[in-house]
Write a structure and sequence with these properties.
It comes from Solanum verrucosum. Keywords: Iron, Metal-binding, Oxidoreductase, Vitamin C. It holds the Pfam family DIOX_N. This is Non-haem dioxygenase N-terminal domain-containing protein. With about 110 residues, the chain is mainly alpha-helical. The protein has two domains: about 5-45, no CATH class; about 55-105, no CATH class. The chain is about 45% helix and about 5% strand. It has helices at about 5-20, 20-25, 65-80, 95-105, and strands at about 55-60, 85-90. It has a two-stranded parallel sheet. Strand 1 (about 55-60), helix 3 and strand 2 (about 85-90) form a beta-alpha-beta unit. The longest helix has 17 residues, at about 65-80. The radius of gyration is 22 Å and the shape is elongated.
Length: about 110
């Protein structure tokens, strides 16, 4: 069921007035995205087949060789300045700890 432009605006205002934000929606236990957050098909962006390749930083050997350490630091700096994020591999953090950390954020 589509929400008319007027209804959508009043629903958005009501949502803003609660000051609860998206966290308030999550805390309320919603299981479906509210209609006010779904763009009508005519307003949606076209599907894009662009595939991004983002930086992956391998920490293997960072403590074993000062030259390798500097190279890794330079890669982190470059990825941070250029992309703002990166993936780290061979960091030595066990998978079960990563899983527990993710569970703790949910």
């Amino acid at each position: 069921m589509a929400v008319s432009s007027h209804d959508r605006m009043s629903e958005l205002k009501a949502f803003d007035d609660t000051k609860a934000g998206v966290k308030g929606l999550v805390d309320s236990g919603i299981t479906k995205v509210p209609q006010i957050f779904i763009l009508p098909p005519k307003n949606r962006a076209e599907i894009c087949e662009t595939h991004f390749v983002f930086p992956v930083i391998d920490l293997q050997g960072i403590d074993e060789d000062p030259i390798k350490h500097k190279e890794i630091v330079d890669k982190v700096r470059d990825a941070s300045e250029t992309w703002g994020f990166f993936q780290v591999v061979n960091h030595g953090i066990p998978t079960f700890i990563l899983d527990k950390t993710l569970q703790g954020t949910r």
